[in-house]
Amino acid sequence: MCQLFALSCNVPSAVTFSFTGLSARGGQTGEHADGYGLAFHDERRCRLFIDEGRACDAALAGFLRQHPIRARTVLAHIRKATQGPVQLSNCHPFLREWQGRHWSFCHNGDLKDFHPRLSGSHLPIGETDSERAFCWMLQELRRRFRSSRPTGWAQLAPVIAELAERIGRHGVFNFLLSDGEAVYAHASTRLFWLQRAHPFPTAHLVDHDIALDLSVANGPDDRMVLVATEPLTRNEAWRPFAEGELKVFVAGELVWQHVPQAVMKAGVVRDEASRTTLAMSA
Amino acid sequence: MCQLFALSCNVPSAVTFSFTGLSARGGQTGEHADGYGLAFHDERRCRLFIDEGRACDAALAGFLRQHPIRARTVLAHIRKATQGPVQLSNCHPFLREWQGRHWSFCHNGDLKDFHPRLSGSHLPIGETDSERAFCWMLQELRRRFRSSRPTGWAQLAPVIAELAERIGRHGVFNFLLSDGEAVYAHASTRLFWLQRAHPFPTAHLVDHDIALDLSVANGPDDRMVLVATEPLTRNEAWRPFAEGELKVFVAGELVWQHVPQAVMKAGVVRDEASRTTLAMSA
Asked: Is the Cβ pair B97, A122 closer than 8 Å?
């Protein structure tokens, strides 16, 4: 399966340190060598970098480790192909426009028999179950929210949770979705998150013998959330998502979360905080 | 105004040489220093690189000059801002999906009082007249061709010519549009094109004292068309578009062209071949 990563910040931030750890999993410390991609959202526009090479040693990945691109929201993906051949059109994140915003999406998992009826408003370009799921989610959101102006995360979150649950019946559906304002992160089986704020520690990567004093680059008011399939640093308090949980992050804060009732009743909620299903703060 | 560039080839080709000349116009030999972008279409997916920096010395532009990305169709743009501030969301090319294909678009010109009614199928993310025109064109194409499968260039070309003429009434509208299969190039005031085939010459850039023996990288069956606002090389036979002309290029061949009747009657057609308005070859 694949490696997911997201960053949500209240100020434009670089991901060169995190991507140095993540990209090692693309052929060096991990077997996810079938392409990679990063989506940097800032100023409404999204800059997408995708490549079918190995993230650990491809030239473009090296450029992105060396040249910080600052953005408030970043999604990244390291691919281990399950459906669709190793080619550019199957690399995540996928990108579409809806309501005058760029939406990016990446997926870790494998959906069986998922062939929803697509009306044509958003159609897949490649051959993955992931892109089909993304297009169907956007189609359903467009059907329910007909405004040309952006709908806020508070209205979108419960609908995205419902759509995630429906698609999740077809298999493993860990995903990250963003319009640049909010990051919607859904764990079907495995996802971790971490909030960083003042005082910032010195972080040690799991995949490299590299440490970074985060207090140098970040000010006292800076705040950020990181989401990843596996913790990227070994000395910070990464917390697991509950199975089936959707969390929404805006400007480095957790603002909404939801765990399906069935999962809560079965007692598989591992994180106390995830029982809160109401909006917490804007 | 801006600098446009397109490449259409029958085999995946690099644009490092052409982009070396073009990017010099982004702040060095030209004043177009308000951002740049390249769209590489191959395997249905499109890789888009945009940056609000100067193409002549930005780090990403340097990477793209040094690392060939091979594609059958490439669009590039060097921006001199007329409408919309210098920021990422206003950098060309713009990218959207329609019929399961990526469409890219870039524009040189300035449209006055162009505020078409946009239904929501494709909406601008930035603030340029250019992106509005692109969204409206895709909206009109979507309205006329309702299939979920890609419509061929032979059907699209006359409609795109009609839309270009309508938008062109609002001002200067030189543009490049592509779905990765065909390049639709429209000249409102100024655009040149060049076909390269065996025997390939040694080409000398206009903007740098650099020459390249094109026979080294290209085989006897390779064929390509280049389109640019100003010729990029000084020893090849660049031909001007007629005013108002739309030409369509597929796999390095001119396959369709059209000049509005009014322009032909006024005797401003400068290129004999452009009188042919029928499809020439697939």
From this structure: yes
Tell me which DSSP letter residue B272 carries. G
Angle (deg, nearest 10), helices A59-66 and B59-66: 160
B211 CA to centre of own chain: 24
Report pLDDT for B278. 41
Mean pLDDT of chain A: 90
Nearest to A97 among B63, B99, B122 (CB): B122
Say which DSSP state B133 is in.
H
Q: How far is CA A76 from CA A26, A109, A178, A189, B215, in A?
A: 12, 15, 11, 18, 40
| Residue A147 to residue B162: CA distance in whole angstroms | 29
Largest CA distance in chain B: 50
The answer to whether B128 touches B115, Cβ cutoff 8 Å, is: no
The residues spanned by each domain of chain A are 3-275
Question: Alpha-carbon distance B225 to B195, whole Å?
Answer: 4
Fold of A3-275: Glutamine Phosphoribosylpyrophosphate, subunit 1, domain 1 (3.60.20)
Q: Which chain B residue shows the shortest CA-CA distance from A131?
A: B100
To the nearest whole Å, the CA of A71 is away from the closest chain B CA by 11
User: pTM score, two decimals?
Assistant: 0.92
Q: What is the pLDDT of residues A54-92, one digit of tens each?
A: 999 999 999 999 999 999 999 999 988 777 788 888 899
> Looking at residue B205, what DSSP letter applies?
B
Record the tokens describing residue B77, joined without a space: 């743009």
pLDDT digits (tens, 9 = 90+) for B235-279: 999 999 999 999 999 999 999 999 987 766 665 444 434 444 444
